[in-house]
Amino acid sequence: MTETTTHPTRRTVLKGAAAAAVMTAVGELRMFDAEAAAAPAHKGVFGYGIASGDPTANAVVIWTRATPPAKKGQPVATPGSGHGGPLQVTWQVARDPKFKHIVKHGKVKATAAHDHTVKVDVKGLQPYTRYWYRFSAAGQTSAVGQTQTAPDVADETHALRFALVTCSNYTGGYFTAYRAIAQRNDLDFVLHVGDYIYEYGNGADRYGPKSLKGKRDAQPATEAIDLKGYRLRHAIHKADPDQQAAHKIAPWITIFDDHEVANNSWASGAENHQKDEGAYRKRRQAAYQAYMEWMPFRMPDQDEVPHRGTRFFKRFTYGSLADLTIIETRQNRSKQVDAPDGSTHDGGFIPFGTDPATDAALADPSRHLPEPEQMTWIKDGISQPATWHLIGNQTMLAPIRYPGSVGGFTGVGLNSDQWDGYQADQSELISHIAAQPAEAGDVVVLTGDIHSSWAVDLPAVAAGTTPGADYTPVGVEFVTPSVTSDGFYEGVADRTGYGPGAVALTNTLVVTSVKTQSPWVKYFDGVGHGYALVDVTPDRVQADFFLTPEPTAARPDPRTDPKAMPTYQASWQTVAGSRRISAADGPVGARSDSPA
Ligand SMILES: [Fe+2]
To answer: Are the C-beta atoms of 453 and 523 separated by less than 8 Å?
Structure first.
């Protein structure tokens, strides 16, 4: 996400930090806190926990990191270190948590080539069925993970419920959203739509509340720019107890956004990538490699559909109830449009409707967010019959007009790093949704990145224009808040220095103005952090928002309180056939059925 306030300062400080990172990298003396990084490794072979992911009707990916026990006089095989020999790992999948009824098992080798991470795509499982899995190696056994296959059986309709999360900045706060998710027992999966890690270091570029310095520090201590750095950055997340707990209870479906590489990334660069950090493509390749090693992500078939670069986008199905299209919008996107006064760099809050050249660039049909091949694939999916087409998306699809004050200018603005910055693509996709007959079902876009909670109608929109109050709704978009990353509240608090008093200012300055200028916005909370619960039935899709408590004088930043759990705040829904948002009566009840 684009920072709302400290752009010039941030750029200036980053240059110094980046230079320092390169200097230390060159001398192989990067400031790894080796002792802290090694702690989970010292906890045993499986100190980084376990995870499962990408469940289909018959398969699920299981994951762990198997640290080889250190031999006397030899260094510990910490993540990114390249140390440690190969380790034979045994895995088991059972129908019960005590492993009395083992249905699948096998052996796999953990090696330094993949940072001793292990991923097994367990196939031949039964649909909509719960399983337990574990690993063992070197005489040690991992924690037991619970997972399940997808509620995807032809001609059957089952419950479908998942947690939607985004933007989990380790230095930004405690992962209480993950802890809350781990306490649920009604999820088919957790959907993370991007910014699972952030690339920033602990120096002048540190991102998040200052009071957590020394309590929740990034590793490596400097910006992640190479394979070693990204591997270790992923590892500190997998060492976090709340993160481990949330992976332990359900499979995850994940896709990266910008920060898994660098802020506001596009095809050939990023806002937070400087020349002195090396070639961007090389950096991105390292980031992708670490992501694939450390996440329970199944690489989709590269030959199945046309794409550019590496295909990451994929689709899951849930009988005739729904499909879930996971899109990827960073690898091939055109460079962002910047403010005419040069106040942004690779995207940000920029004026709209005042500078003809800027407006023309925003609407330019040669600029793309997903590559055209992926756009065709997304549109094809929406045209298939299903009650619901769910789309796991990174940046907001709906057009949103912000008060210029958010970007420090007068008039109306938009965020050029969102679909609003690629208006030809935005209009093409929304128009395609609008053109679908009733039997093609309805579209629900599920989004992250913007560190705030939203429920909005998707209004029909032509590139270069803003819909009016008489807009035509064609579908809906739910946006989940960040787990910990700075949102609009923190932006206003930083700008004004008002602390908890900024809550009211956020609500009046930002929320009211956005809702006035974008009347299709039905719900917008710029203060809370947490997650959204998404529940899908043939009749409606509902999102329940679980947010951290409002900041107060006694607790000005709940993210720094390890006990500040997100709690239920609001519910919004879309009724089948309505293609718009409506209020829901209250939080969702029990599931209609559960996996075998
Ligand atoms: Fe983010």
So the answer is: yes
Whole-number Å distance between alpha carbons of 252 and 193: 10
Distance 259 CA to ligand 1 centre (A): 7
Q: DSSP class of residue 510?
A: I
Name the residue type at position 205: D
Distance, CA 579 to ligand 1 centroid (Å)? Answer: 28
String of DSSP letters for 152-187: --TT----EEEEEE----GGG---HHHHHHHT-S--
* Max Cα-Cα span within the chain: 73
pTM of structure? 0.94
Place of tokens 């409506």: 582
Query: Which is nearest to 134 in space by CA: 102, 110, 111?
Result: 102
323 and 390 Cβ atoms separated by less than 8 Å: yes
State how far the Cα of 586 lies from the Cα of 68, in Å rounded to an integer. 49
CA separation for the pair 334, 513 (Å, rounded): 29
* 527, 553, 563 from 558: Cα distances, Å: 11, 11, 9
**pLDDT, block means (10 residues), the chain with 596 residues:** 41 33 35 69 91 98 96 90 96 98 98 98 98 98 98 94 98 98 98 98 96 95 97 97 98 98 98 97 98 98 98 97 98 98 96 97 98 98 95 98 91 97 98 96 98 98 97 98 97 90 90 96 98 98 97 94 97 98 97 96
- Does a cis peptide bond (omega within 30 degrees of 0) precede residue 365? no
How far apart are the C-alpha atoms of 251 and 319, rounded to whole Å? 19
Pairing of strands 87-94, 60-65: unpaired
Q: How close is the Cα of 333 to the center of ligand 1, in Å?
A: 17
Phi, psi at residue 270, to the nearest 5°? -160, 155
29 C-alpha to center of ligand 1: Å?
Answer: 29
Q: Of 64, 485, 93, which is closest to residue 247 (Cα–Cα)?
A: 64
